[in-house]
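Hi everyone, sorry if this is the wrong subforum. Our group has a chain we'd like a structural model of before ordering constructs, and none of us has done structure prediction before. Sequence below.
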Amino acid sequence: MAQQDLIESPVKELVRRFLITFVLGVIVYRLGVFVPIPGVNAEALKAIVTGGLGGDADPLKAMLAYANMFNGGAIAQASIFGLGITPYISASIILQLMTFSIPALKALQKEGETGRRKINQYTRYATLLIALVQSAIAAIALSRYSSGGNVLLTPEALSNTPMFIAQSMLVITTGSMLILWIADQITRFGVGNGVSIVIMISIMAYLPTAFAGHATDLGPLLLLIAVCLIIIACIIVVVQAVRRVNLEQQRRVQGNRVYGGAQTTLPLKLNQANVIPVIFAQPVLVLLTMLAANQFAAAVGLDQFMGYGNPGHRLIFAILIVAFTYFYISITFDLNDLTSHFKQAGFFVRGIKPGKNTVDYIGSIMTRITFVGAIFLALISIMPETLATTLGLQGQGAVLLGGTGLLIVVGVLLDVMQKVGSFMLAHKYGGVAGAGGLGAGKKPGSGKRF
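Answer:
Right subforum, don't worry. Here is the predicted structure as tokens:
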């Protein structure tokens, strides 16, 4: 009877799932952001992080400012959630790349649900290891940072630095794994894609910052809102854009019956890599900027060329994003495997011979649409520096409205809307999703938009 009521009341089920997502994602997670790490001077750290996107900011401070937005201000608060969900994202990307390069993992992925659960377990082990390493680096950096006579630790923590480092590693790693648990619960009992939901909530927490300083100035405020709407419209077009390749199935005649002859399409997304190339390019850019700061490079002006806010910085960042976009798609999009599935199912592209010719045809299409998607991703990623100078935005607001902030938020919201539509449609035609819900049958983080 309970299951029958659930099938007949999809709205009630949706309300329950959204309520669970709100409690875990907004209340529990956001409260945890304001729980500080013992022994850290939060005010001194906040001054460094929030000022990390000024014109004279060094690359490490700029990177901290970006990470602070994606973690919902947790770094500026010296929070136990300072690492956010980034260790899991890093582990997922590493395992995804290893799956396509290591035959054993690739074979494990093809085993169906059992193989996916095993890979998901490996991802969690990798998440724990990465969180331990990153928390150790963060604790050591906090204990050794000193600028202008200011330190980031309290006198009690400075008196016993090894104990502070060990304590911070335990606290920060536990906080990161707790965020992963919250994301898992949202995936299972909420609206699905818990990792993406957590990132979206973190970014949206910075939305008021984007409009700071414009409360009494109507002209710039209206211009800022117009720019936001234009960016959102462009993101929707790019996220939803697909290039469809028409496929036909071979026909077989047996007696008086004709088998096959079905027609379908292969949708190729314009932005296949989402924001993963930006995640790859950011640390490489920081490393290049640090290398350009040495005496030899400074003698020829490379330090000024690569400095944050300069055209060279934006140019190198854009080139790295385009390069990593092609690299990521070449690793994760196996055309040979795809065309072999077509051949086994009897599908072919009209006018194109199966096998290598089909691979070359689809590859040429992917190359062209990937170029457009990569250019869009590069433009929207270098936009914070432009917005900061032309619209007079504060650093954190520029990062949110430009870069990948709106791209993630809009992408996740579109994904949630599609899931809700599919959920309601499934209930309307048989109620097949009644028992499974929005996130049924998906591993945590599947379909995420980083």
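For your construct planning: The chain has two domains: 1-208+412-450, 213-393. Confidence is low (pLDDT under 50) at residues 1-7, 431-437, 439-450.
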